[in-house]
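Example record used in the benchmark description.
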Amino acid sequence: MKTILKTLAFVLAIPAMLSACGGGGGGDSGSSTTGTLHVQMTDSPSCGFDHVYVTVSKVRVNMNAQAGDTDGGWTEIALASPQKVDLLSLTNGVLADLGQTALPAGQYQQVRLVLAQNQGNTLANSIVPTGGSEQPLDTPGASQSGYKIIRPFSVQPNTLVDLVLDFNACKSVVQKGNGSYSLKPVVTATPTVVSGTISGYVAPAEAGAAVYAEQNGHVIKGTVADSNGQFVLTPLEQSSTNGNYDVVIVQNNVATGIVRSVPVVVNTSTVVATPSAPIVLPDSVMHVASGTVLPASAQAIVRALQSISGLNYEITSANANLDTGTYALNLPAAAPLIGTYSGSLPVALSPAASAAGQYTAEADSVTGATQSSAVNVSATGQTNVNFGF
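Model output (structure tokens):
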């Protein structure tokens, strides 16, 4: 899932850190000069869901990263009425507008996204598994305190700047042992004043593929190729800030495609493939790597990384079950196709034969602890890839 927050001058380019925590009352920042804060939402690949609904009631900001529920300094964007959004309808740059407010100029440190509560049979927040029926989505802490995002941004006088909060549904929706679902948000933030776009096409037969923009083996933004095979990754922070991006294309029963070193230029779209020469990927059998992460209280996410010429790429990920710690990763057995962007099209992709079926499963605990294990699914699946924290 993705969410976009539009503000006035946003200056830092790090992934947002998000947790459930308390919210509180208002306050005065001490400045009489104002800018404007504008909030929107967008989304990433969905991992087995037809719909993911959340209902936003308000957004709160504070200049103090450590501000708690009852501390001063809070400014709120209160929606006229709570807005229910299907996050999976927000792909390829589509945004949902949540409103705006004037803010005193200054440096802000904390954003909180407050969701409405489920009440009885009225589901403010819910999911629809592919082929299944609507189920409640538990949002611990979200309706009382809001989800906390630490991401410094600057509001300049009389200026409007967009800050994009990008939810990743694959990593944010977690299953419990009884089959119900909980929201454990994974969010990144991008200021559009220093951002651009990567766009391209996969073959129409590969419509629905997940497409990620990655840096150093970490997903920065994701989307889904539409029915024509088109994908748009936006907004992405300019390359001069954190470096170029690797575009990773993943779909069931298809080999992974990787276009390395794609630059992003402010207010420009870098095209990596055209409708007449789309990225075409060969078929691949899929095998499953599975295991447990214990204790379940580690609330781990397990990432499947593939190493090619010493560089890592995240291919897929799964949250360990909140109650049992079980997880499963569905992985292509075929060699990934990889090429390097040079400015001329089409980008030549060649199979990295030595990487076929070879992965590293990395378990990342909620505490920040990490463990990894080699995985080989070139011939068959692999079970008991277990981790203990």
